[in-house]
Design a protein that fits this description.
Distance between the termini: 40 Å
Order of helices and strands: HHEHEHEEHEHHEHE
Helix content: 25-40%
CATH architecture: 3-Layer(aba) Sandwich
Number of strands: 7
CATH superfamily: Vaccinia Virus protein VP39
Structural class: alpha/beta
Low-confidence stretches: 1-11
Strand order of the largest sheet: 3-2-1-4-5-7-6
Shape: globular
Largest sheet: 7 strands, mixed
CATH topology: Rossmann fold
Radius of gyration: 17 Å
Mean pLDDT: 92
Amino acid sequence: MGFKSHDLFILKPYSTSRWDIDFLAENPVVRSMDFGMTKESKCVRHPIRLLRYWFGQQLLCEEFVKAGRPIDVAEIGVHVGQMLEFVRSSPGGFQYNRWTAVDAIIRRERLDQAGYSDFLEANLEEPSFTLEHKYDTAVLLHVLEHLFNPESVLKKVAEAIRPGGSLIGGFPVVPGILAGIRESQVRKTAKPMGHVSVFSPKRVRRMAADAGLSVEFMSGAFLMRSKGSPLENSAAWMRLNLLWGRLFPGWPGEIYWLMRKPAA
């Protein structure tokens, strides 16, 4: 499927095998009526769909430990605030000072309840888009695939990150050999607010380099996902999917990453 050696097993001392998945099994927040996840996924103990928030939460916790203080976070593309709700529902002592919600439509009442501290309503692809403050980290989960020029937006976000800070993100992924073909296909049939950009591990690395960042962590999420499958009651099945994703980040599915800005 076009895998290359540099698509394998990246990178630094992050270990998904040691990251906590136990709290997923009985987390009442993600199983509430308001949380944006399908009914089928809420009926199993270890829903693989939750990995889109879990990767971000684990990487944010590591950034908090690294900083040694509450951190300032900008979240780009928040929808109704599931990411922050998930972070606040998890165990541990993660603390933030500022968490800015950035989206084309700000659902202020819902985001207030979720815990966001301030808000920026903006069209990410407008030339005038910029972040108003400096941040320790930015979260871009499942937003860049909706943009025609994700590289430009990534650069603008990176400009607002303090030296030594990070960008954490994720989106669907395909092997590099298929990315260009797939992008041409989706752009012909894309609906409003649909997917228009397609990513591979190679493109992730290129985006980082173009923005003056280094890829410090990159992992696929799963071998196979089936909403509500009995397999998703098994912690061992989730661990197997995580191992597969770590070994083969370009496997068709989803990829998650952390890019680091050089320290001053």
